Amino acid sequence: MRPPPLWPLWLLLGGLGAAAPPLDSFSQLAAPQRLELHLYNDEQTLSWEPSPPSNDTRPVVYQVEYKYFDGSWNKFNRVNCTDITVTKCDFTGGSRFKGFSGLYSVLLRVRAKQGERTSDWVTLTWFQRYCNVTVGPPKNISVTPGKGSLIIHFSPPFPVTRDATFEYRVHYWEKTGTQQVRGPFKENSVVLSNLKPFSVYCLQTEAQLTVRDKNICRPGLSLSNVTCHETTGDASNRLQVILIPMGTFLLLLVLTGTCFFLFLRYQSRVKYWFQAPPNIPEQIKEYLKDPDQPILDALDKDTSPKDDAWDSVSIVSSPGKEQNVLHIL
Ligand SMILES: *[C@@H]1O[C@H](CO)[C@@H](O)[C@H](O)[C@H]1NC(C)=O
Ligand SMILES: *[C@@H]1O[C@H](CO)[C@@H](O)[C@H](O)[C@H]1NC(C)=O
Ligand SMILES: *[C@@H]1O[C@H](CO)[C@@H](O)[C@H](O)[C@H]1NC(C)=O
Ligand SMILES: *[C@@H]1O[C@H](CO)[C@@H](O)[C@H](O)[C@H]1NC(C)=O
Ligand SMILES: *[C@@H]1O[C@H](CO)[C@@H](O)[C@H](O)[C@H]1NC(C)=O
């Protein structure tokens, strides 16, 4: 069967909101509410909120029907969700009904039933599985590090018919770098080449479902979890990575050693070049060696006048020492 054209849907949608004929309020059972369709990969479920409780204590059951469009709308058919007590119908796993194929427009409806009383049918907005689905990330992702590259293998998120294909994209980045994207790829393996050797890259993959001849179809998609991997490289790359920091370290070590050796070897000359710091005047030195010797005598031995001697004392002494000296004087 060929994929149905879309245009008649708009005509149909206009008819969906038509009000149900008024019924006797006693025989009328409240209809299910808030129908929700879950389409994720090949999961297809419809859920709803139960009818509000009433005086009637008999169990409430639900009936689900579908119809699809192939040029015109077919009749409503029952699915394996007839007289169920749960508020959820799973279309994925039936043995007779194997879920909705990708491109048919489908209408689903639900009603509640209690004894002989039934509610109105509640109809969900039409959908096309391949257009309304949210596509998960590729499955079984494995990453093999290569020389300055990463090789990624994966499986499609779910099997699709020939009406649709997957395109894959890889988002990747270095620990501190900006994110880049490669793709789209049609194959189930991708080689990220031209990466730096011995560097850690993190990546996420995504699968996009593209439906043939349908530009208006925009299925949702989600990214895989982030994983990080280190690339490998040639032995020479490895040497570079190891040798550059090691070489720098060794060079510094040799330089330091040489300086130290030269210093020891030419210590005296170095001392000569860097003049010794100013010494304490001889007289004071002697006084400090032998405090019994009167300093004035020592000073008088030299020809320097008293006032000058005072000056010379105050220049070389710290305030504390100066006091000492003055005290002794
Ligand atoms: C429930 O039963 C009470 C008394 O039996 C009655 O007054 C009320 O109208 C009933 N409610 C409904 C929704 O039938
Ligand atoms: C219908 O669903 C029930 C359980 O939900 C399962 O046991 C049964 O095999 C299904 N029948 C068909 C015809 O799919
Ligand atoms: C499916 O997608 C179409 C187009 O985006 C939208 O109008 C429609 O409401 C969706 N159907 C459901 C059941 O969400
Ligand atoms: C993923 O791998 C597991 C085992 O490793 C395998 O059983 C499964 O079929 C694979 N899935 C796909 C979609 O290839
Ligand atoms: C991603 O990670 C979360 C939590 O770490 C985990 O629950 C989930 O299954 C992972 N998804 C995939 C696709 O591996």
From TrEMBL:
The keyword Coiled coil does not apply. The gene is Ifngr2. Gene3D superfamilies: Immunoglobulins. Keywords: Membrane, Signal, Transmembrane, Transmembrane helix. The lineage of its organism: Eukaryota, Metazoa, Chordata, Craniata, Vertebrata. This is Ifngr2 protein. The chain crosses the membrane at residues 242-264. One of its GO terms (cellular component) is plasma membrane. It comes from the Eukaryota. InterPro entries: FN3_dom, FN3_sf, Ig-like_fold, Interferon/interleukin_rcp_dom, Type-II_Cytokine-TF_Rcpt. GO terms for molecular function: cytokine receptor activity. The keyword Isomerase does not apply. Residues 1-19 form the signal peptide. Residues 137-231 form the Fibronectin type-III domain. CDD domains: FN3. SUPFAM superfamilies: Fibronectin type III (SSF49265).
